Amino acid sequence: MTYDLVIRSLRVVTGTVERPAAVAVRSGKIVRIAGYDERLPAHVDEDIGERALLPGLVDSHVHVNEPGRTDWEGFPAATAAATAGGVTAIIDMPLNSRPPTLTTAALAEKRLAAAGACHVDVGFWAGIVPSNLGRLRELHDAGVFGFKCFTCCSGAPEFPSLSSSQLRSAFAEVASFGGLVLVHAEDEAALSEPQGGGYVAFLASRPISAETQAVQRVVTEAAKTGVRAHIVHLSAAGCLPILAAQHPAPPHRPMVTAETCPHYLTFADTDIREAGVGDAARPPVAPATWFKCCPPIREAPHREALWKGLADGVISCVVSDHSPCAPELKQGDFATAWGGISSLQLSLPAVWTAARARGHRLVDVVSWMAAGPAALAGLPGKGRIAEGFDADLVSFADEERFVVTPDRLRHRHPVTPYLGRDLTGVVHATWLRGNRVYSGPAGSASPAAEGAGRLLSRAD
Question: Is the per-residue pLDDT at 276 higher than 60?
Fold first, then answer.
């Protein structure tokens, strides 16, 4: 029996352990996990030695912005960046594309834009806005993985938020067919216009109470309606007790789960102030608006609480919330600049750099960035190195360091708060269903990589 590919590593991350092993691949699937030294006839037999072999990461929170805002990113650029970051599957958010994914016609338009243009596998979330309430089942049946909604202004006029009564209606509707709702949870009534253009004013305009009040509302309404809900991009420590209180005993899963993002786990308010934005006593030197996102990056105690939330299992996923824009939209100040952080390619090294400093292991990072998002979206063949799973694999040098420079980035625009940052962990190769789609760190995507990605559907 001859395999298409065998990859050997002294450190294969399988489940909760690292161990020497040889991973055998046929027809895009992992068909055997054997001993490291076992003889396995194969067309290609590659030994990566001390480099860790990880499952391909799943990033369930990516704004590709195509169609309609392809000058912000687009499927070829976003998925090329994904390969360089060890990400082999992404789920695209329903905004900020034009049209947003609010109807089956818009979903078809997005699929058409992505077809043949992707280096990795791509699935789609749909959106919930007041105008499509009552018609969500159509999108569910068309294969979207779930629905995204906002409890505050989204920043995109074509994607309005839901009132409290509309949120309840949406939950009940999605619960009726067993779907999933993702919620941007900030209470509109607790938000205000920034009283100035600096970071301190922006932070004050989006207080902790905005998150805690909205998360409590989501937990309450989920309990009433029976919907499965998920809080996206959690930033505030005060939300963790609310989420922990509704966690049942294993193996049961909570009704409301949560994710956080690399930027909330990496940065704190001092990083932004040191980048040139302060208060009246410290005039701004530079706007540093590349740090702007919603909810905002908060003070260091919130960051450390999020790490504890991951360790305790209250937070189940770490995903990028990759939300790029044209560079000119980051000009100005914190009151006017676009809010969104580009980090799809950098998520793995950013999280690993911070995780290892806190005593976490690669198996933890894989749980948060591969298995967790795959379980959230419902991708049973992704996120693990196991027999029967897709041969989505990553060769990762976890002790190798690099400095983030624009020439390394494969996003359409090299605008990110990670520029100049010293990170640990380099992706040396990425395989999608056994096909090499990235060779690094100085390499590039395989010539055949564009188009190698498949369009995923919940019904698959």
Answer: no
